[in-house]
């Protein structure tokens, strides 16, 4: 669990380290308290990304993310990235 400030800093760091940060919303579902989405990424992070040496190489992967809301604010986030898809692109034989 991280607080709002730590979550914000992580997103700001990503924006700096991934100059072409952009994603496509593939699926979006919501109810009164939850938003769920499947996001498609096609990016070129500088340096490391998720502990992997990407170093500007273009990688594509998906993320499934869930946001829980209370009082109009995000109170919890669950995220699952397809790190294996990134590894397969970086370490092709």
Q: How does this model look, in words?
A:
It is a single chain. This protein has 93 residues and is an alpha+beta fold. The chain is 24% helix and 46% strand. The protein contains 2 helices and 6 strands. It has helices spanning 4-17, 83-90; strands at residues 23-30, 34-43, 48-49, 52-53, 59-70, 73-81. The chain has a 4-stranded antiparallel sheet, covered by helices on one side. The radius of gyration is 14 Å and the shape is globular.
Number of strands: 6
What is the percent of helical residues? 10-25%
The unreliable regions are: none
General shape? globular
Number of helices: 2
Taken as a percent bin, the fraction of beta residues is over 45%
Strand order of the largest sheet: 1-2-5-6
Biggest sheet overview: 4 strands, antiparallel
Report the order of strands and helices: HEEEEEEH
Subunit arrangement of the protein: single chain
Alpha-beta content class: alpha+beta
Mean pLDDT: 89
Radius of gyration equals: 14 Å
State the distance separating the first and last CA atoms.
37 Å
